[in-house]
Here is the input.
Amino acid sequence: MGLALQKKVEIRESRLHTILTYNGDSKGLDKASRENKLKIGRFKFSQCGNCQEGCAFMQVYSVHDAAVVSHSPIGCYANVSERFLGMANVATLRGKDSFSHHSLCTNIQESDTIYGGANKLRHAVEEAYRRYNPKVIYITTSCASGIVGDDVQAVAEEMTDELEIPVFAVECEGFKSRIWSTGFDAAFNGILQTAVKPPKKKQPDLVNIFNFSGVDSFTPLLKTIGLRPNYLVETRSVDEISQMAEAACTATICETLATFVGDRLEKLYGVPQVIAPAPYGIQWTDRWLRAVAAFTGKQSIVEAAIRKEHDRIGEELKRLREFFKGKKVYIFSGASYAHNMASVCHDLGLEVIGITTYHHDQNYDTKEINTVKFMTETIGNVPNYTICNKQPYQVIKFLAKLDPDFLIVRHPAITVLGYKLGIPSIMEGDSNKCVGYNGIIELGQRIQKILKTKKLYKNIASHAEFPYTDWWLDEKTDAFHFVGGL
Here is the structure.
């Protein structure tokens, strides 16, 4: 429909004007973003970071009958592959019988940086084909392969002709983008070009759900209005993925993950996107269901389904709201998912006193989707809104300043900081437990349980030490002291 896919995806810094640092409130962030006033920022000191190669590898590696060749040193491969050995468990949670891991590494060595690694890459692709008999092979690149200058695209095209299956170069060298979520875009670009086919027929009850791992929360939610989810892309086969263009509409739990692929699906195949916040919390789930119903002809039954769900959870929700009066929460997560958690917490009656996200897209592939705007309109202005790319030396200052009753985080390492500061913490991860009407009750009950363990956290904090000077820990020292270029 007027859109031509390209081999490479423009990085988020230039395509979405993504930033890595901010200190203010949510209203100010939204306003400045609309005018593209914010700069990415430069860290003069950094303790850690992520790489877009990991995000790209995760997506293509999770395709059931594909194989991945990581054109990288073994250290990069170990970093991106070891985190996804739980994919078999994801398959079980989603009702699939099994999941096999299909990946190899070219193990770029010093000699390859001198003479080039193209021949080694060809051999690895041939070996992946011999071992796994895949329907598609993805080649993920690395900083090393990019610096050497191997023509990975040419090798992919050559091997496509030789093996007679798609071989696609997912170009995701870490140094090309400081925004690791750019890797999602690169991977989905490859999936669109190798696995997705024009629709043979439309499936009017099928809803694309772009998601990570976790429990199957969307089947019971969509079942309330007679629909079913098409989970994408983890543990799905190439044949299953090929049907995504047949769906009635596309939704995602996290705009950071999938607005790129959602936008392309709409422009290429006419699959509309759900222009509503993700179904987290009562208000957002109501809006999301109504938006999905509008695309699937379920308007006549959606209001009754919503009322039924409200009645079902009403008594327990009232009890939880009474318990949470006066309680304060801090949220640390990727951008869109943090806004999701804020929506749930607000509907539980909690005060969201602060949010830290890893990055922020000032623009969106789909202009109508703007989660920081959705959040601010729903819960009001969040007065302490910061952005930092997981820097622990900054995070401890954010938390120590506000002293929340508990902390919700998306990734496990940050949870430890909460423990060391004596703050009860929940590591939400990719569980999907917070989705829909059941999700708000489930999260509330978990928070209630964890608040009973405050003494344990205080004991941990009394024995914990941080590797920072008194100067840095002093409340007068600016948490953004080492950030420049704003």
